[in-house]
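Interim report, section 4.2 (structural modelling).
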Amino acid sequence: MPVKFTRTKAEFSGECTVEEAETIFEWLRKTPKGELHLAGVTHFHAAILQTLMITQNKISAMPRDSFAAECMRQVRSA
Amino acid sequence: MNPLLQQFLSEGRDFIEQIGQKLLILEETPNNEAVVGELFRFVHTLKGNSGLFDLPILTRVVHAAEDLLDRVRDHELTVTSELTDDLLSAMDFVVQLLDEIEDGGTIPDTYLPDATKLVDRLRSLLPERDVHEDEEGAEETMPAPTDWSWLSRLTEEQRVQALAQTPADQAIWALFYLPEPQCFFKGEDPLLLLKHVPGLAGFSIRAAQPWSPLDELDIYTANLAIDALSMADRAELDEHLRYVPEQIAVYQLPRFALAVPTGDASEVPGVYADFFDRARDCLGRSDMDGLRVAVDAMLDMINPTLWMASALRWCLCLQDMGFDTSVLAFHLEATADHKIPDWFLFNRTQSASLNAPDKQAAPIAVEDPKLPAGTLSDMELALWDRIFETQRQFLAIPSASAQWGGRLASVYNTLTGLLRAKGDVQALAALEDAAETSEQEKSFAPLLEFLDGYGPIAVCNDEPLAIVAEETVVPMVVELAAERQIRQDRRAGEGAIESTRRAAEVSADKAVRTLKVPQEKVDRLMDLIGEMVVAKNALPYLAARAEDVFGSRELGREIKSQYAIINRIAEEMQDGIMQVRMLPVDAIFQRFPRLVRDVAKQLGKKVRLVIEGEDTEADKNIIESLGDPMIHILRNSLDHGIEMPEVRAADGKAEEGRLSVRASQEGDRVLIEIEDDGKGIDPAVIKRKAFEKGLIDEQRLDTISDADAVQLVFAAGFSTAETVSNLSGRGVGMDVVRSSLEKVGGQVRLTSEKGKGTKIILSLPLSMSVSNVMMVDIGGQNFGVPIDVVVETVRIKQSDIHIFKQRRTAVLRGRIVPLYSTDELLASHNPPKPNADGEYAVLVARVHGETVGIVVDGFAQTIDVILKPLEGALAGLAGFAGSALLGDGSVLLVLNIKELI
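Predicted structure of the assembly:
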């Protein structure tokens, strides 16, 4: 599982596939205060990006992957 | 070669064969809907399949053909003989291409000019489609966005970088990607696609629609709108995006479009006014250096994170890129208004006036939007009018609700630009109201009302201006059409694959029942069964040994009974495998309609081809060997046999000649009759020609019967055509036809009646893999003689053999039969030996219609053998038909009596 959830934090790593979107979305809805640690992400599926767009959870670390980081910048800067 | 390509080639050939046939049927019955449908499907599938490979030339040609057929299907085009000709030649060209691919794996570029010519030719046959349909076609594809403001979402660095990487004379490709809502379920990941866009220089991701509340939200519904810049070329982009063409619009951005200021929008009051005055002044005097100084000074004064600073940096950047005052002025004015410059609008106005004779006018108009209308040149007014009118038309087209908003926005933007260019402030306000009402009412009506109210502007619409306008607008339209074409192509290609896939699913049952097996596999089975037959034939020897050597009759009998069983199974197996190799003669016959049609047309003759019994089957090798001889015979019939329509009419025959080809099975042979009702062969002419060419002597000239005379056409070096035409006089005579048929064990007979027609009968074995041979003893060695040449075997007393001039003859059943002894024929030193009663064994054979006797030492049994041609160093040996392996392991040489005598 590329996403590890704790009570206050979700840590993303590697490639996050479309299958994870549902779980992530549920967690984000239930934990609006939860922080997102994205540093280890290499790529996330568009569905996951969508969940990150809708929910406004704080991002504690941006992805190191430049493409993923640019995606995040795009969806969170607006 | 990769198996997919191989399959494409073999299927492609099948398709083309079918297409050719259907075209001919269609030419006969132009309104046959079923055939048109089928034909279109074939061409469509062929094109779709070709899209799987990198074969643009082929795809283009087939696509052009498909377009024509599409029109035929829509009843916009009727099938004429001309159209059929063009389509057939296109298919011939495709066959050439397929050959080329088979040989070299690709299509050499040398075919490009021909292909282009062909495509142009086919396209020229396309009737014009009315505009309305074109519009509909356009709506299927994604329109390029008319709003380039997304560029501001890219960082300034990204855009500067992108500019640095593109050469000055090149535009930058941009794409707008709107993934369809259900795309996640199709396994698509828009982000992954975006990530790997070649030459990706920056992108923007937005929500396409406002998000629904969290509780109702389905995260598996895609709701993204993606814009991206790419440094790659168009072909690369198309290649990358080929799976989602309907969701993507690729368009070109002029370089200046990237100059979009971003940053902190907070105002520094009172600072800018002087600057803008000064800048405008510099621009007006085209004083670039002055402008630069002013901008530099301003930049020093303000915080670099400010929006204004960014705008000024872009101003410098545009200067660096060498854009003229019009671009700079547009940028400056937008900056002065604290607006993001609408480069889209600017680009449209500019490209419209790009070719205008009065180049200066356009920039002026843009430079100061508040200029009164009077300053627009006539030329520009004409253009203005045109654009204005187009908006009206645009609104009049019914649109799907999804596109509604976009269209409204685009029309509004365009109109705003237009009015601003005219300086009509009042109208601008009215337009704003109308657009708002339109938005609220969800209808174009208020906007249309505004347009009508504004009315057509009286413009001196004199002729030359209109022409110029036409010219300037046309290139854009053409380009758009071309782009659309490409997209449609791609989509159609995918559709074809899709439909093939569907068809494959539907016919899954059928597919299981028919296997496509490479011929080598069947040949291997054939070889194996051959060995099996040989091995099986060893059993009788074994039985004989059991009896003779080991004295056990019982064992011998048992072996024989087992042999009978194995024999039966082996024969059935052989039969079964032979069946696999059987092909209907149709495989060859299907080429004929085309051939006859083309040749007849070329000669100006009218011919009807009747084919019967095309499902008669024979071995693949036999069928294949039939092709060339039959084509030759047909050509002969068409060229020399069937007369010109007027000659036929004068002779009281129907104008249309009849050429019939009939196939039937007779015992273990296939008979093919080719009959025409032409002028027939004149025996007198044949006789004279044969005599002139020295084929017969004077004596024979007088005695030869008419029936025998016509057979002389088979003699080597005989050609009766007075003039060598490009059809039959190729130096290949009927003798070649005969010898090539004889190679596979076939025979040719010809009967002809002067004035009534000619009939040629070909008789071929069903299969040539198993031959029945008679074994004869010659000098202590066994030789085989194919049983079909053997007439009888007789024993002739030495005293009955007469010698005339060293040639031995015997009288047999009242006829004189020349005798050949095997020591002469095979150049051996063992003259045939008579038996104890002083009788010679004579094998009577029929060679070229003559009966000859061959004196041998003795006869043995007849046997079925698998005849293998002599190979390698022995291949050139004349006189032998081949070799076969016998049950005891020995090799039997089979004689070719025809060659020996």
